[in-house]
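Support case: user asked for a sample of complex input and structure output to validate their parser. Sending the pair below.
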Amino acid sequence: MSVLDPAATAIRLFDAERNLHFFPIRHHSPACALHLREALRVIRPSAVLIEGPVDFEPLITELLAPGVVPPVAMVALPDAAEKGRGGTTYYPICRHSPEFVAIQQATELGATVRFIDLPSRHPAMLSDRRDRQDQPLLPMRETMFDRGAYVEAMCARTGFRDGLALWDGLFEARARGTDWRGFFASVGAYCSALRAASDPDELEADGTLPREAMMRSCIQEAIAARSGPIAIITGGFHTPALIDAHTDASRPAGAAARSNAWLVRYDFRALDRLNGYGAGLPLPGFYERVWQRLIGTDDAQSTLTEDILVGFRAHLIEKEPALTFSFPTLQSMVETARRLAELRGLSEPGRTELFDALQSSAIKQEIEVGAHPLLAAFTTYLQGDRLGDLPPGSRLPPLIERTGSEARSLGLSLDDAIPKTRELDIYRKPRHGQTSRFLYAMRLVAPPFAERVKGPDRVYGFRADMLMETWTYAWSPAVEAALIERAGDGETVRDVAAALLIRRLEDLEQEGQRNNAEAAFNLLSIAFDAGIGSAAETLIAAVSEAVGADTQLLRLTNALVIGQALNSRARAMPSDAAIKAFADLLPALLDRLARRIAELLPDLAAVNADNVGGAIACLAALAEAMADPDPPFPTQPLRDALQGLMSAQLDPQLTGAVIALAALVSLIDEAEAGQRLSAALAGAFERPGDAIRTLSGVMALAPQLFVNDSSVITAIDDLFGAVDDQGFLDLLPQLRMAFAELSPQETDKVAAIVAAAHGASEDDLALLQRVPDARVLADHLMLSERLRSQWQADGLAAWLEPAP
Amino acid sequence: MEQRNALQLRPSAEARFADELAALKASDQGRRPPGWALSARAVRSFILGDNKLSIRRKFYGDDALVERALVALMSEQGLMLVGEPGTAKSMLSELLAAAISGSSMLTVQGSTGVTEDHVRYGWNYALLIAEGPTPRALVPSPVMEAMRLGRVVRVEELTRCPPEIQDVLISVLSEKVMTVPELGESASVYAAPGFSVIGTANLRDRGVHEMSSALKRRFNFETVVPLTDSALEIELIRQEVGKRLGQADITVNFPDEVTDLLVTTFQDLRRGQTKDHVPLSKPAAVMSTAEAVNIAHAAALEAAFLGNGDVGGAHIGRQLQGVIIKDNAEDVKKVRAYVDHIVKERARRSKVWADFLGAVKAMKDES
């Protein structure tokens, strides 16, 4: 279905006078790659010029070395002078990248290969508008293929749903066949129309114009040095700016800069993330299969559609059985895809048809647009999970090199990507402690590397008595990719981790969370685990500031729990240098924190029934922190503040919690606690349930107080005695909530005390437990009552006496 | 039949678009699936429009959905259109049937009262008593007719039919045969090529009969969603109201600003946030384009017969009440909040919005 008006936007791709052949391409397009290979075989160029940063040229030899398996990426790391511009530059390459195919073909033909774009770290290459500092930088950007007025108009005219489907339908569908001239003429016409519809100001702003000046200058240079035809392969968007012989071809300043460039292993997942930023066609797993089909390397017993859908079903059966569909559904899917392609005038089903067929045949319910898990699973499947490879002994960027040697020196095996398990005796063996800190640092810097399976909860001190940690780890290209992404931040894992933590601290500031003591303490805890002594001072200063500024008691008390856990860990490893940096600074910080909490505690008097939950949680955290027999912070200010609270007028639930806390920290003894509680329960409130809420407060902190002191139980019992049935029903919800905190054994104990107080025997209790629910009991009691009065009326009162 | 058309409130799709169908048939080059009146591509053009043949677009929204639907109908599967009320499910099924089979009249109007007679066959009892079970005495259902003629049968509101009726469809869709035991073995009706079933259902309504998985398996599902493109919705409303007013020979002045107000209000409430991402509570009421058309139409009628022919914000405001307040007190609160916060703000800058605000406020005070 040709909808282009070639006459209107056609460009001259063959310059006979200068013997130049221009090839407009789209990155990662199998159709472009195949036609390009064919074209190069026909025109046999003496030089092939490719849109790639000129400083990546030395990597071409490395790329062609035996043992290189795409996906790989050429990367440039920011150097020290560039601090703040951050971000690694990526030039990803897969098997089906037209550039890669061209380099291979050119080498086979003995042609010279040159990169003709500006150096990767040239200001014009860094001037794209990224949303975040640490977003990757890309020498190529293809967002114009996805949106814009022209793409929208074309979609409306042709019925394709978006820019990607449009590209697939117009060009990928034409991958077969030998008419490369016609193919590139169409791509050229399409791209020149895209170009005509774009905003010239934007081209200046995003560095496109200086880049194209560089490309023209390189073309001139190549013409001067050539011995035959020249092939010029660039993103189709640039081609129209290169073909005119008379456009200015002077070289922009800074074009000779060299950078810190490397060839690294890459993986499809990371590649597809880059495509999210406009690096080329997405779903590398899918297009690689298309490519293999095109060049005939896979054995073609079945159609590509069948292959992919059958493979997807097998993948689901193995990995996500809940989403699996039946075999007849699979058949109908294949048929649907084929018919859709026919309806849309395509020779065979493409990406869109596969998704449509899946949606149409396998999803038997109403769906929100594109939001079904099956479609998401298919996307992941088509993304692919191929890992690239480099031959052993390849040159590696310093961060990877050093990280690798540190890991090896700690006895970690990095020879393959198979996950391994390591048990660490973190407190008793210094080397294990070091390994643990290295793994924590790696978890921060390159998350795919290590995963902690078992061990003490490092932040809140949960299961703090565990001595061993268990980790799994695996060195994969994903780890290298993650390291590369961070390489701008330093040359060792520790440096990068420190930079990351400081950035997170800055993020907190930007989110207006500068006064969040809990979040700051969390960062501190991470730094501690990773042994990042160099960041200790900065972090502690920030944390200290947060403590002074935080007005939320709950965050502060949580911070206290974290700080206390930190301190006990520091004490368990006194000899370690990295830990010492923290251990020395902690006491002053905790002192400040405790005093700050004491300062804010009286504010609890203002808490009412609506926001009492947070206040209870904060007293519970305080109870946890103060339970330490030798707390690393001064307790006296806290006890004073608590004393003050005991005589304040509080929300009933809070009263309960304060009494419980006071008893727990031995500010009062259990007998006094019982008395105060009884008094509180007898209190007069306008809502009868409020007295019971006192109980909930106690239960949240110290249920044992209630169970151990039967005078409290008697007080509750008295409370019930004073209300009628309706009143009891009103109390019931509060009571249920309060008792929910008790363990079954404790509930039994309370029941026994109450039963004894009412003279009921254990048999009565056992009987009661056999009653299925309250309604049955009520019915039966009513029946007894009717029987009793009937017998009395009938003069049979004697029957009611127990038998002699 | 032809004579009655003039008196019909709403002629069938094949009657309304007879010219377009004829033009498509004349120029149709594509291969026709067995039993179809047009090729799949021509049916697509009929529904999504074709400038060259001046075929008007009739279904707005997801083009790929229409393509998938066509493919489902070409295959062994039935087609199930699901979605909220008022998203043009029935219209789409009518258009598909009209274009594919040349007739959209073979329809089962689903309800709890549907019996087996409506989906299998019934008897003319006088003849049955007189002659016994004979082909003459048999009264075929639309489903049986569609099988015999190789046409598309529409089952509206399938989930409102009792389960036993839905079960009948399972065997019809899988075996493609309907037996008539009373007439003996040879009387079975086999589906001719071109036979298919289009069901529509609103899965969100409470109290419907859940479809069995056996039945679901025999249908391809397509979800029809409300329009999200306001420009498209404005165009659609304008077209539809223009057509309705044209039929009744009424002319009003319907300014763009007023259509824009209507669509903005609908899109805001439907999405639960404004275009500037201000969140608001979404009412439970159905806020479909069809409802918006009804409001615009009613507003135009009010302006024409009770006013001076100029439609303003106040007309829309008064009609909105009818859609939102269908005895749902929660919705009233939600819309009140919307009016008090968001509409009030807009009313400061625009006369149309101010009129709208005034009308809604006045209604509220009454209630």
